[in-house]
Amino acid sequence: MKRNPIPGIIIFLVLVGFVIFCFPPNLGRRWTEIENPEAFYKECISLYEQNKIKLEEDPHYIVLEKEQYSEEIKKINPRAVTVNYKSINVLISSGGIGKGWGYVVYPVDYDIKKEKNIESSKYKNIYKYVTSG
Predict the structure, then answer these.
(1) Please, which residues bridge with residue 101 across strands?
(2) CA 110 to CA 87: how far, in whole Å?
């Protein structure tokens, strides 16, 4: 009498799925390279200046439309760009299940030590951030 291999295959696939679910591979964050950091910084500051008046009406933040993105910002294909009273945030990944991340630019001198989710990047005046959720 021959044994049916289907139950064994199903059990194997369930075990593999369980192991991947419990111990997902660490793919890490893929930080998009900024081709021209100086232009990226200047364009972020320009977006901040253009939206400063709107921030007086809604002091939380403004989500920019994709049409408003500058050329350097478009090159890194962000999920979103927001402007708030102290920074411009360029979201690269919303994170899905995990945390989102992106770049942040401050238009004025700002002590990044006040922010727990901000760290230096290899670009001058452009910082990395990771969302807390």
Answers:
(1) 93, 130
(2) 9
Q: Write out the E strands in the chain.
A: 61-63, 80-84, 88-93, 101-105, 118-120, 127-130
Separation between Cα atoms, residue 78 and residue 75, nearest integer Å: 8
Backbone angles phi, psi at 120, to 5 degrees: -65, 155
Burial of 90 (0-12, 13-18, 19+ CB in 10 A): buried
What does residue 83 show for φ and ψ, rounded to 5 degrees?
-125, 130
Give per-residue pLDDT as tens, 58-99: 767 888 999 999 899 999 999 999 998 888 999 998 777 778
Integer Cα distance of 78 and 126 in angstroms:
15
Contact between 126 and 34 under an 8 Å Cβ cutoff? The reply is yes
pTM equals 0.72
**Domain spans, the chain:** 37-130
